[in-house]
Design goal:
With 191 residues, the protein is of the alpha/beta class. The chain contains seven helices and six strands. Helix 3 packs across helix 7 and helix 4 runs parallel beside helix 6.
Length: 191
């Protein structure tokens, strides 16, 4: 069985793709809350790699400034790139003030963004954190009415209009397939 360390924001999608493709894959999630402290992501991933033979790391760079480059990982700066690189580039060219949501971020926005940034206690900080954003774009992997409602609530919290782009999981699936086909297990000595 191959083992992948995955960002908590991607772990369900990685598991779903593996199940659908019939891959014998163990997925070990790392808390998505580490995105609020990207300098801690490398240590969390390294600790898991020290205890397991990892074949891939399902992360983009995620603000680590290259700290994950020693691992076989997904291409891209962040999960938005992993799911929809072309759409993200086009959206930013069109409107640089775009705030992106994935399905995971839409569903967990109250906790992973609102509470983690302290906005439930200090709502006046919303303007400081989000003043330069002009819209919210939900990069929908599996558009459901519940996730659509969650994305709408998140955009409402930010006081911004919501735009929806259905992107699926094809980008993540292609990148996982590349990693799993070309990467031997990463053991502590190999890193």
């Amino acid at each position: 069985m191959k083992t992948v360390v995955a960002c908590g924001a991607l772990a369900l999608d990685v598991r779903g793709i593996a199940r659908r493709r019939g891959w014998d894959l163990k997925v070990i999630p790392v808390s998505a809350l580490l995105h609020n402290h990207p300098h801690r992501i490398d240590a969390a991933v390294a600790a898991l790699c020290a205890d397991h033979d990892i074949v891939a790391v399902a992360y983009g760079d995620c603000g680590t400034r290259g700290a994950l480059d020693g691992f076989p990982r997904l291409e891209g700066e962040h999960c938005y790139d992993v799911f929809a690189r072309a759409e993200v580039r086009a959206a930013l060219d069109e409107e640089p003030g775009t705030y992106f949501l994935t399905d995971f971020l839409a569903r967990t926005f109250e906790h992973t963004v609102w509470r983690e940034l302290g906005l439930e206690r200090y709502p006046e900080l919303r303007e400081d954190y989000f003043r330069h954003y002009t819209r919210v774009m939900w990069l929908a992997q599996r558009p459901t009415p519940a996730t659509q409602a969650a994305a709408s609530r998140a955009a409402g919290r930010l006081g911004l209009p919501l735009v929806v782009r259905e992107v699926g999981v094809d980008g993540l699936e292609r990148d996982l397939e590349r990693l799993l086909a070309s990467t031997p297990a990463v053991t502590p000595a190999a890193r």
